[in-house]
Amino acid sequence: MIRAHAQSPLAGYRTILLQANKNRSRLHPRRPVTHRIARGSTPKEEPMYVITGATGNTGSAVAGRLLERGHPVRVIGRDAGRLKRFAERGAEPFVADLTDSGALTRAFSGAKAVYAMIPPNIASPDVRAYSEQVAEAIARALEESGVARAVVLSSIGADKPARTGPVLGLHNLEQKLNRIAALNAVYLRAGYFMENTLPQTEVIRAFGMVAGPLRPDLLLPMIATRDIAAAAADTLPDGFQGKTARELLGARDVSYRDVARAIGQAIGKPELPYVQMPASQFKAALVQMGMSENMAEMILEMAEALNSGYMAALEKRSSRNTTPTALETFVAETFVPAFRAKAASA
Questions:
Q1: Distance from first CA to last CA of the chain, Å, rounded?
Q2: Model confidence over 137-169: pLDDT tens digits?
Q3: Residues of the chain with pLDDT under 50
Q4: pLDDT (0 to 100) of residue 39
């Protein structure tokens, strides 16, 4: 049962989302950044792998895997301080804004392959314009630098030309790269990130439920970002030819009802329910946490595309697109420690 609480679920959900995201730089409007090598040098001439979004969930893991294998790596990010941990492991840091095609052209110089992505900017008043800027800068830099290969973080639904919320930006990025004749590209169309469940730690603590805009019975190809990073790190050195889309569908399809059940069993609340929030309330919660109205509308458009089945995987599940991390593993190794840390700090 849902526990009675003096605070409304909506108000609590606003607080939860804010707390879950308050330290993330993507909550703030992006300011122009002057590119620079963090150590004051020029880019190395030896062939290397260049990672955009290197301080994010997938980019950091891709960079880490490549460094573990002894590959030369150049990491791109907006904050030199956050790139320092990679520099300490031997990577070459390059500070740049991904909307700056000139800086990216220099950062991509000498690259054997690039891991390319559009980082989220949830405070943007015009999400599609921002995504278009980044996509155009990446495409221009790849073409002008002469990079032969790119592995691109995309999403299920990127095949659709409209009505997919922020995923439309990935569709447009794929189309831009398709027009670069000399570029070989693999588009990793990933499923729903398991990490999207992490803000539920506070929802559960406050209200004894999991909540969101998706249908409780909607089966999603849910994937851990570690598995996306593993696929990208394995693909970058491959010497692939042509342009192809490859879906990554997680270990199996699961619903948010399954998510609530897995979490409940792991934290000793086996009857933990999932409650679908009305779109209007969910939008209000997103705006209250600092998200722009436009971004909130894009998230709801994507939720509707998922709920209706318009946005879905195209490939049949196979050994090639199935990845190893099960929902229960993610819950045990990532969600439960986060949940306990929240409880300890309360």
A1: 23
A2: 999 999 999 999 999 999 999 999 999 999 999
A3: 1-42, 44
A4: 39
CA distance 37 to 77: 10
Q: Which residues contact 1 (CB under 8 A, 6 or more apart)?
A: 208, 271, 273
322 token code pair:
């199935």
| pLDDT at site 3 | 39
CB distance 305 to 157 below 8 Å: yes
User: Looking at the DSSP assignment, which residues form a beta bridge with residue 241?
Assistant: none
Q: What are the extents of the domains in the chain?
A: 9-345
CA dihedral 229, 230, 233, 234 (to 10 degrees): -150
Q: pLDDT per residue over 99-122, tens digit each?
A: 999 999 999 999 999 999 999 999
Q: What is the pLDDT of residue 206?
A: 86
Name the CATH superfamily housing domain 9-345: NAD(P)-binding Rossmann-like Domain (3.40.50.720)
